[in-house]
Design brief:
Largest sheet: 7 strands, antiparallel
Distance between the termini: 36 Å
Number of helices: 7
Structural class: alpha+beta
Number of domains: 2
Helix content: 25-40%
């Protein structure tokens, strides 16, 4: 990963998720104000040009992620799994999604629980996120949901939930560089170990489904996850 320096292209590249999100959001507005002079909401040509810029930005983002051996929204399932393996995750669960060719997969790496389900005949990533307990300053967290979990050695601990479809390596590296990922949780993050098919079933019970899948995890993982009380 490139060194992060404020005010340089390297800084923008290192913060691809933020940079790209801003660029996608403002592409049409930039076209409106700087190129066509028309409001993209009222001009089809301006909207089309803005969409083209957004597509170009997505291509650049994929290139930057590939150069960092990371994943983007355009990554194939094979590419995504290769990065997961390279990061040292162990497979906890790999099971078919009923009625499809897709699969639900759950991974573990030193306190990080990563879950994903595939789509499109098991060729692409449908959803993916990882959760962990992280010790550090809240201002050093970004692009994730988080809640206060407690305190260790005078430092706050946060239960963190991160979208893992994109910039997975980047997010883990940033958490490791800016604080400490706890190998044992002091509070369970919100867990959603369901596939897209599970939530389509009438009266499904996500807590029961979570429990059934967690019961298949190795003892050392369940011990790390259950090291604190949880109502989930």
């Amino acid at each position: 990963m490139a060194n992060i320096e404020h005010g340089t292209l390297g800084y923008a590249e290192a913060h691809v998720p933020h940079f790209a999100e801003y660029a996608n959001k403002t592409a049409r507005e930039a076209v409106s104000g700087l190129v066509t002079g028309d409001d993209y909401k009222e001009s089809e040509s301006t909207m089309a040009l803005g969409a083209l810029l957004a597509m170009t930005n997505a291509q650049n983002k994929r290139r930057l992620m590939a150069e960092s051996n990371d994943v983007s929204m355009q990554s194939t399932l094979e590419e995504w799994l290769a990065v997961v393996a390279d990061l040292g995750f162990d497979v906890l669960l790999d099971e078919p999604i009923e009625g499809t060719e897709d699969r639900l997969r759950v991974f573990w790496r030193d306190g990080v629980l990563l879950k994903m389900d595939s789509y499109w005949g098991n060729t692409s990533v449908n959803s993916a996120n990882f959760v962990c307990n992280w010790k550090g300053e809240r201002n050093d967290l970004f692009s994730c949901s988080n809640g206060y979990a407690g305190e260790i050695d005078g430092l706050s601990v946060w239960d963190v939930n991160v979208d893992a479809r994109e910039a997975l390596r980047f997010h883990i590296e940033q958490l490791e560089q800016r604080g400490v990922i706890l190998p044992k949780w002091i509070k369970s993050p919100f867990l959603w170990l369901l596939s897209y098919q599970d939530s389509k079933q009438p009266n499904y019970d996500y807590k029961k489904i979570n429990a059934e899948r967690i019961s298949q995890f190795p003892d050392f993982v369940r011990n790390a996850m259950n090291s604190a009380p949880t109502d989930q």
